[in-house]
Amino acid sequence: MNGLAPSRLTRWIIGIVVGAFFAIPLLSTFLYTLRDDDGFSLVHWTNLFDPAKASTYAPIWVGLGNSIVLSVVTVAIVLFVLAPTMILVHLRFPKLRSGFEFLVLLPISIPAIVLVVGLAPIYLQIGRALGTGAWTLAFAYGITVLPFAYRAIQASIDAVDVRTLAEAARSLGSGWGTVVLRVIAPNLRTGLLAASLISVAVVLGEFTIASLLNRQVFQTALVVVKNTDGYAAAVFTLLALALAFALLIVIGLAGRARTGKAGS
After folding, report:
1. Element (H, E) at 173
2. Rounded Cα distance, 89 and 212, in Å
3. Domains of the chain
4. CA 48, CA 54: separation in Å to the nearest integer?
5. Do residues 189 and 223 touch, judged by C-beta distance below 8 A?
6. Closest Cα to residue 234, out of 35, 83, 70?
7. What is the maximal distance between C-alpha atoms in the chain?
8. 45 in Cβ contact with 33 (< 8 Å)
9. Are 21 and 13 in contact (CB under 8 A)?
10. Please, are residues 170 and 219 in contact by the beta-carbon 8 Å criterion?
11. Alpha helix ranges (H) inside the chain
12. Of 148, 243, 137, which Cα lies nearest the Cα of 192?
């Protein structure tokens, strides 16, 4: 047994403190959504399906639709731009890996407000060329998710002998497209799935860039609705967190399934 490992009691204390740190705000928010004039009820949850409240919640549905479109475009950037580039660097340009890793991880150290200041002139040109649709935020979100997606994909690349797989497929006459799509990508599916789901979670939770660039997404819509119905904003916040937790559970189950298959 490692003498530096914390004792069982210490692990329990850490687990309880960390669990309380997350559980208390969520429980408080949930209880807040149950409050009404007569005590507690589900009236604020059932109001989501009340046609009379449709106009109040309309910004949230619009913002949610925009965020879903942004999630799809951002995931496409991760899968079809970042992942192939990482495979290319790993196979053909290994000496560039440290520099590439530095550039990819750089956005995590830059505050969102600084990113917006730098991206504002670019988005002025994007607006003239492609319009001001919310989907154009995917270019900025594609930058913000780079550090998270990179770590997830790189872990899978390091766990698989990508070079041997590629050389074996090439020796059998496969083109590079076949090598990447039918040989390497299936072996990286856990990392690609994790990168995709983390990207979706980041996009659904991002507020600063969308607000400062005047785009309506899920988080900015929550702020708008909060000014007229604070209960609805709390309900949608809990639903968004539940979706994020569900995505993390899917990542964990996918990784566990792969580990079990590899061990069998």
Report:
1. none
2. 34
3. 58-218 (1.10.3720.10)
4. 8
5. no
6. 35
7. 74
8. yes
9. no
10. no
11. 8-34, 43-46, 54-77, 83-92, 97-105, 112-130, 137-144, 146-159, 162-171, 176-178, 185-187, 189-205, 208-212, 218-226, 230-263
12. 148
Residue 36 phi, psi dihedral angles, 5° rounding: -145, -170
DSSP label at residue 7: P
Q: What is the mean pLDDT of the chain?
A: 84
Whether the model pTM is above 0.85: no
Calculate the CA dihedral of residues 84, 85, 91, 93 and round it to 10 degrees.
Answer: 170
Q: What is the DSSP letter of 38?
A: T
Where residue 170 falls among pLDDT bands split at 50, 70, 90? confident
Helices 8-34/230-263 angle, 10° precision: 140
The end-to-end CA distance of the chain, in Å, is 26
44 C-beta neighbours (distance < 10 Å), count: 18
β-strands 39-40, 35-36 pairing: antiparallel
In angstroms, the Cα distances linking 95 to 83, 100, 170, 180 are: 18, 9, 22, 20
DSSP designation for 41: -
pLDDT in tens, 192-215: 888 888 888 888 888 888 888 888
Determine if residue 133 is left, alpha or beta; phi over 0 gives left, psi from -120 to 50 gives alpha, anything else beta: beta
Alpha-carbon distances of 193 from 167, 190, 254, rounded to whole Å:
25, 5, 8
Question: Amino acid identity, residue 144?
Answer: T
